[in-house]
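Before we proceed, please read the two lines closing this message. Tell me what the token row says about the fold.
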Amino acid sequence: MSLTLRTISREQHLAYIQGLPSASHCQVPAWADVKTEWRSENLGWFDDRTGELVGAGLVLYRQLPKVKRYLAYLPEGPVINWYAPNLEDWLQPMLAHLKSQGAFSVKMGPPVVIRRWDAAAIKKGIQDPEVKRLRDVEATFIEPRAFEVSDRLRRMGWQQGEDGGAGFGDVQPRFVFQVPLENRTLEEVHKGFNQLWRRNIKKAEKAGVEVVQGGFEDLPEWQRLYEVTAERDRFRPRPLGYFEQMWKALNSEDPNRMRLYFAKHEGEAVAAATMLVVGGHVWYSYGASANHKREVRPSNAMQWRMLQDAYALGASVYDLRGISDSLDDSDHLFGLIQFKVGTGGEAAEYIGEWDFPLNKLLHKALDIYMSRR
């Protein structure tokens, strides 16, 4: 297939995404309006023979201080055929175009899964004192074509970036946790939960925990719980304005793109979460909870409700987003994988983020700057 790359309109980009089974929420046109500190561009790949749009990418440009040079970033994208034997023909025109736009370096996150581990394999790894990392556990599923993609990228001069950790901050997570919903009944999904999860859902029900959907006007209440969580878990919270902008931007593109959930006990909101929807892929995006009333298990009740709603939307996967690959119970992020593995889902490893230095000197300077932050 002979390809041409050019800038496309947001409308063309959105129409292309809507025609796919799913794509990352970081690759919908409205994501550019969430990331207000970046300038953006919508790219399209066209089949020269038919003139058909066959790929798309949202590029975010971050300017270097004092110079008109940019880092070009395609988070969890571009949305192209990553297994195409002529991958070079997709990526070389993109690099040439981004260079012409003043980019000194390109960062992208191919949405290509390399390995999966089911809940049983992870549990076995957790119980083995010799095992400290998820990658030390034998994978349940391996995608051989993903290794080819990595090899091709290396041969083209792309460099594998640092691991994204659990997805806190701007770098996308390499390891995520997902609950497959396709070809399963809700009863089967519920049965897949471990005993503790099922018990906690029942406990929340008995205690009278009610899970409700909120709207834009409820975001200050979300923020209150989120800041409590940030203080407890020692991370820097995003401001309320970020979530307000996210809500307006995403839901003006599609009224069902972003949802807000609260778990309430005796009328008080004690847990909250945001959910994102693109086609058949649904994400639990941000979560928050109070320091008290944890014994009524509001988070388990809320996740179960969100899973049921994702199922009702016809989702093929419910994505609990980032996990660390540490299976060491002394690691501060271990609780995250422990909580998520209780859903009976699976851990997935992506091939990670990749960098292409268009100007080696500026790219190196950025590396030094980022390492000192």
Remarks:
- Residues 114-143+174-350 form a domain with the Aminopeptidase fold (CATH 3.40.630.30).
